[in-house]
Amino acid sequence: MSDDEYEFCEIDGLIFSISPAQVRNERPALLQINPAYESWQIEGVLNHEHWEGQETRAGIREVVRGAQVLAEALRAAYPERRFMIDNRLGCGVLSFFQAHPGAPLADDEPKEPLAEETYCHVCGKRQRYHLRPQPDPEFPELEWADCATCGTELYLYCRSRLSVVGPPAR
Ligand SMILES: [Zn+2]
After folding, report:
1. Does a structural domain hold residue 61?
2. Could you tell me the distance, in angstroms and rounded to a whole number, from the CA of residue 117 to the centre of ligand 1?
3. Does some domain include residue 47?
4. 148 CA distance to ligand 1 centroid (A)?
5. What per-residue confidence (pLDDT) applies to 2?
6. How many domains does the chain fold into?
7. pLDDT digits over 70-83, tens only?
8. Gap from CA of 131 to ligand 1 centroid (Å)
């Protein structure tokens, strides 16, 4: 989604960026899949949006700008509330949830072992790569590499960048 216009709704204390009709539709379906979903998980799933063009650094920059637009919209609509924005770098999935008790404050997902090959979007297939020894200054969450065949900049895996919006927790 590249539209700057967010319209939020509140249902049973939960905040959504989809319409109330969609929430009424999708929330029971979600709870049928997993009845143990907590409030922040329901918000996180129903509020997620997908961004295209995530093969390149420029594409990731777009969704980072999108996360800023979302943060501003949330701040303007609910200045007294606290949210977490979950920007899943590399996958192009942007979402948010309220900082309910028990909601994650950091990406504590275990790091996967690195595969020998990864998909190169220029070569159009999986290739060996040279991992960069230093963390990337702009997106240190991701593992950056260069395609061993064509030299294109690549990254491996997706990681969440979580950011807080709103007043400090009391
Ligand atoms: Zn390549």
Report:
1. yes
2. 11
3. yes
4. 7
5. 42
6. 1
7. 999 999 999 999 99
8. 13
Which tops the pLDDT comparison, 3 or 73? Answer: 73
Distance 94 CA to ligand 1 centre (A): 27
The boundaries of the domain holding residue 66 are 9-106
Residue 3 has pLDDT above 70, yes or no: no
Residue 42 maps to a domain: yes
Sign of CA dihedral 59, 60, 61, 63: positive
* Percent of the chain scoring above 90 in pLDDT: 84
> 146 in a domain, yes or no?
no
| Residue from 12, 104, 86 nearest 49 by CA | 86
Distance between CA atoms of 96 and 150, rounded to whole angstroms? 37
Helix (H) or strand (E) holding 71: helix 57-77
Reading the block at residue 108, the tokens are 């504590």
Question: Closest Cα to residue 83, out of 167, 165, 169, 170?
Answer: 165
What spacing in Å lies between the alpha carbon of 62 and ligand 1's midpoint?
23
- Residue 111 confidence (pLDDT): 75
Q: Which two tokens stand for residue 54?
A: 């995530």
For ligand 1, an ion, list residues with CB under 5 A: 120, 122-123, 147, 149-150, 152
Locus of tokens 């009424």:
24
Q: Which residue has the higher pLDDT, 2 or 5?
A: 5
pTM above 0.85, yes or no: yes
Question: How far does residue 120's CA lie from ligand 1's centre (Å)?
Answer: 5
